[in-house]
Structures are given as C-alpha cells and as structure tokens.
C-alpha cells in the first residue's frame, strides 16, 4: 500500500520522531499487555469480573480469539481502553500516528507522552468533549 511507503519515507527522514515513537510504542504495547492480562484473568482486584459468569473453562482460553472477544466485550471500559491502544499501535504502523484525526495537525509530543493513544489534538479533543463534535 502507498501509505506504508509514505510511512517508511517519513520515518527515514525524521529519526528524532522515529525513536520517540518507538518509546511510545513500547508504552502502548506494555499497556495493551497489561489490559489483556487484566481482562483475561479474574482476580480479587477486579470486582467487575466477579459479576461475570464465565461460560468458558479457563483452560480453554488460549488461542480462542472469538471467545476471548466475547469475554472482552463484557468488560467494556477496559475493552474501550484496549481498543484505543490497539488503534494507536495501528497508527504507529501505518505512519498516521501523532496526527490529529480531525484537523490533521501534529499532536504535541507532550500530549502524546501524557496520553499515548490520543487521536486528537487538545483543541479538537476539547471540542468533542464539550459536545459540539
Ligand atoms: Zn485537531
């Protein structure tokens, strides 16, 4: 795809960004792993999971992505967070990471460090949150 070539060119010409993005990617991957672990393993620290009847034998979990997804859907908050993170990782892969999806400007490094999965610049995020979409 053309976007992949564009991303390669962009990262080759901007080494500073590429290494900063590598750092952010590691943060996102860690967070993703953490959320997946958290969602999959019922623990005393997660009262939400006690309310869920797990229809699946825990031994059958590994490798069953469909069943996993059904289970994940029940934990909508964490799932939403996980999806944000996965989307951010996708954007890192296709080179669109760090660009506001609304107005197209570069999201500030500071904001990305605070919210590595941010899709929008501060201005657009605030506009969305105030309900004016
Ligand atoms: Zn914006």
SSE layout:
Blueprint lengths: L1 H12 L1 H26 L6 H4 L14 H9 L2 H19 L14 H6 L7 H8 L4
The site of zinc ion has 8 residues, from α7.
What small ligands are held by the chains? zinc ion
The outline comes out as globular
Structural class: mainly alpha
- In whole angstroms, the N-to-C terminal distance is 31 Å
**Largest sheet entry:** none
Strand content: under 5%
Cα-based radius of gyration, to the nearest Å: 18 Å
- Proportion in helices: 55-70%
Question: Would you report the number of β strands?
Answer: 0
Low-confidence stretches: 6-13, 49-53
What average pLDDT do the residues reach? 76
* Count of DSSP-assigned helices: 7
> What is the domain tally?
2
Order of helices and strands: HHHHHHH
Could you characterize what this model shows?
With 133 residues, this protein is an all-alpha fold. It folds into two domains: 2-97; 98-133, no CATH class. It has helices spanning 2-13, 15-40, 47-50, 65-73, 76-94, 109-114, 122-129. Helix 2 (15-40) packs antiparallel against helix 5. The longest helix is centred in the N-terminal third of the chain and has 26 residues, at 15-40. The model is unreliable at 6-13 and 49-53 (pLDDT under 50). It binds zinc ion.
Supply database-style keywords.
single chain; binds zinc ion; mainly alpha; globular; 133 residues
